[in-house]
Amino acid sequence: KNASRDTGLCVMPDENCNFYNIVKIIQKNTGHFGITPHIHLIFPFLPKESFNDIYKIVTYFTSEFKSFDIRFKDIIRKEGTGKQYVYLVCDDISKDILVKMQKSIMIGLCDALKNGQNQNNQNKLNNND
């Protein structure tokens, strides 16, 4: 209900990562500098107006995860809606870690939204007394 296609929650690689070398080659050869490598965890996401609260929730629910390497086993090229996409397919270990992180964040966000909605409903009931 509150999802926004203008926002997403992504994993961003460190700029010193080898992946950025690929991006630099693409930028040099195409002149397109709008490329930012990322992995979507949740898209669409929540409205930007609620980002302060979301930041706290995401930080809390990702604190259990230590830094990890993401490894890729395949590259897939697709075209659609006039654009071209390159997808890097994670190996199973990387995929498992990303899925666990995604689930942890989603559980935290859903609980927070549900509790917030319950709190709003309770406040409305109290105000009608």
How would you explain this protein's 3D organization?
This protein has 129 residues and is an alpha+beta fold. Helices cover 47% and strands 19% of the residues. It is built from 3 helices and 4 strands; from the N terminus they run βαβαββα. The chain has helices at residues 19-30, 51-62, 92-127; strands at residues 9-11, 39-42, 72-80, 83-90. Strands 1-2 form a two-stranded antiparallel sheet. Strand 3 (72-80) and strand 4 form a beta hairpin. Helix 2 (51-62) crosses helix 3 (92-127). The radius of gyration is 19 Å and the shape is globular. It starts with 8 loop residues before the first strand and ends with a helix.
Q: What is the tally of beta strands? A: 4
Pattern of helices and strands: EHEHEEH
| Largest sheet: number of strands, sense, barrel closure | 2 strands, antiparallel
How much strand content do the residues show?
15-25%
Q: What is the distance, rounded to the nearest whole angstrom, between the alpha carbons of the first and last residues?
A: 29 Å
Rg computed from alpha carbons, rounded to a whole number of angstroms: 19 Å
Category from helices, strands and their pairing: alpha+beta
Residue runs with pLDDT of under 50 for 5 or more positions: 121-125
Q: Strand sequence of the main sheet, in spatial order?
A: 1-2
* Global shape: globular
Task: State the helix count.
Answer: 3
Overall pLDDT score: 76
How much helicity do the residues have?
40-55%
